[in-house]
Amino acid sequence: MKLFNILFIILFVISAGLQYNDPDPYLWVPIYLYAALICFWAIKGRYYPAMYYVGLIGYVGYAIYKIFDSNGVIDWVTLHDEESLVQTMKATKPWVEEAREFFGLLICWAVLLINFIYFKRKQKTRYSF
Q1: In angstroms, rounded to a whole number, what is the distance separating the alpha carbons of residues 108 and 13?
Q2: pLDDT digits (tens, 9 = 90+) for 112-129
Q3: What is the rounded CA–CA span in Å between residue 97 and residue 115?
Q4: CA 23 to chain centre
């Protein structure tokens, strides 16, 4: 788990740094740094359930919003035939940007969920007789 978290700390910090040219960096820098912080705490063995709940609910809630938002994931799939998200790093089309943000949220959510399950199982085995 330590290597897993180190890898995602690096990826999340890089992702946060790449947000400088995003239309809304004030939103995305904290999103990625929050996930990096949780991974850092996981390496240190710190488990704060409330922080996980906030992150998991926040990420999935915002991801659901990105699905139904105008130019969101549904538009990307139905109106734009799942146009490639990696043609260019500059997202000139709003549905490409929205779909990328959706998948970024899913990655953050999945990493937090994996850590959450790991700590829950670790806690459960510690207290079982």
Answers
A1: 12
A2: 999 999 999 988 776 655
A3: 27
A4: 18
Nearest to 76 by CA among 59, 89, 94: 94
Task: Kindly report the length of the chain.
Answer: 129
- Cα–Cα distance, 90 to 18 (Å, whole number): 11
| Cα 5–chain centre separation | 13
Spatial separation of the C-alpha atoms in residues 37 and 91, rounded to whole Å: 27
Q: Into how many domains does the chain fold?
A: 1
What is residue 73's predicted lDDT score, i.e. its pLDDT?
72
Please name the helix (run of DSSP H) or strand (run of DSSP E) that holds residue 34, with its range, or none: helix 25-43
Q: pLDDT category, 21, cuts 50, 70, 90?
A: confident
Taking alpha carbons only, the member of 62, 65, 76 closest to residue 27 is 62
How many whole angstroms separate alpha carbon 36 and alpha carbon 70?
A: 29
What is the C-alpha separation between 82 and 101, in angstroms, rounded?
15
pTM: 0.84
Look up residue 16 and give its two tokens: 């946060």
pLDDT, average across residues 99-122: 93
